[in-house]
Amino acid sequence: MPNTAAVIPSPKVRFEVQDRPIPKPLGSTLLVHNAALATNPVDYKIQDDSYFITIYPNVLGSDIAGTVSAIGPDVKRFNKGDRVTGFASVTSNNDIDHGAFQQYTLLNENSTAKIPDRMSLEEGAILPMAVATSGVGIFLDLRGRKDGSNAPSSGNDEETGQCRNCGDAAIRINTNAREFGAWLFNEFLEKGLVDKTIVPSPAIEKVEGGIASVQKALDLHRKGLSGKKLVISLS
Q1: Which of 83, 95, 142, 179 is 20 to 30 Å from the Cα of 107, by its Cα?
Q2: For residues 56 and 59, what is the distance between their CA atoms, to the nearest angstrom?
């Protein structure tokens, strides 16, 4: 199967559907055959204003779910065939192979979680950005408790370079809080999905058309969307 992708060829233009090479996982990365993608309002803002992305052409998007197709030599927690959800890290590394809007995506092990068999992959796809954003609040609170100060809400951390604004920090969690990210996805999320203390929310609205419908989904976000999550099925 080709790696069909919604590629943004240059800044501030619309997506083009293209076939790309299937990436090879190295180090602690996993290759996931995506079954479902979810979109977020930040995706169209990145498309329109080039936030975080400095290399083009590229593939955007953060929320995926699918089946592990291959693993890098340093991966410890996952095996080929595992059903997973994960936070794609293109906004932090600008690597086109780490974008969500394609058939195959490389995920970092520390931002990936197994999902139970009872949960659909469409449900799994709506979790990553929500979990990362919530996790940032926990992370900043823990840092505030550790150093005796209040958790900050704006500015940049001089030690790590992490933006203290939660919207920014959520999509930078892979590069600036690796150990916390591993706990958040590999342990907290996985356990919560198993014991049902974490459930997928909000309601899903499917956008038909596969990869070719990514632009349609982002256009729907531009018009305004509330109380639902847009999901694109690729299976």
Answers
A1: 142
A2: 9
